[in-house]
Amino acid sequence: MIAYIRGNLESIEESGVILEAGGIGFFINTTGKVTEQLMGMLHEEVLLHTHLQILENERVLFGFPDKTELRNFKRLIAVNGVGPKYALSIMNLLSAEELYLAVQSGDAKTISKANGIGPKLAQRIVLECKDVLETGSDIPEYLPDAGKGSGTAGTGSLPSVRNDAIEAMEALGYSRTEALRAIRSIPDAGEKTVEELLSAALRKLG
Q: Among 56, 65, 155, 190, which is most exposed with the fewest C-beta within 10 angstroms?
């Protein structure tokens, strides 16, 4: 098992990077987001946490600078129907925090925006990953319970003012994940009215 590779970043390719370590060039598959992050680090030392996928005729490495992303990648590919290609597609679309919020709130619609992910597969990801995905930031103070079957989220323990603001933002065309993220970032959100919370959230989303 290769836990990580530390080496010089020799090349950035369309679907990954080449790290040279110990005189060997390792091609490591990753997301477009990661390759963009590494763009300014050519010929510098880089460490990627890796997962080795053993296929019928080859061995393929996948890597991420962050351990949280690696663990989430492994949990995504454990879902039936989600192979490495689809997992990378999801992670290229959503940050660790956004993916966590989408799964916890039952926002299958946002997940289904990733290439190759249909509504049924997105709903399966919500159901199977609810208790295993990690977020790259602090655990949210409040989240609605993921809905069952429809892919929509129920109110759960979310305070009514926040829930009303989220529903208003969804009516305006924002996803539940976008609404949750915006409202989480508002100081003293619990002390605001629906109108104040909605106005502040919309300013956050610009």
A: 56
List, in sequence order, every residue forming a beta bridge with 25; answer none if it has no partner: 20
CB atoms within 10 A of CB 52: 12
pLDDT tens readout for residues 105-150 = 889 999 999 999 999 999 999 999 988 888 765 444 444 444 433 3
User: What is the pLDDT, as a whole number, of residue 136?
Assistant: 67
Convert 87-121 to b/e letters by CB count within 10 Å (16 or more is b): bbbbbbbbebbbbbbbbbbbbbbbbbebeebeeeb
> What pTM was estimated for this model as a whole?
0.74
- Is residue 91 within 8 A of residue 31, CB to CB? The reply is yes
Answer whether 37's CB lies under 8 Å from 19's CB. Answer: no
Could you tell me how many residues make up the chain? 206
Task: Report strand pairing: 59-64 vs 16-21.
Answer: unpaired
180 near 105, Cβ under 8 Å? yes
Cα-Cα-Cα-Cα dihedral of 50, 56, 57, 61, to 10°? Answer: -10
- The three-state secondary structure class of 155 is coil
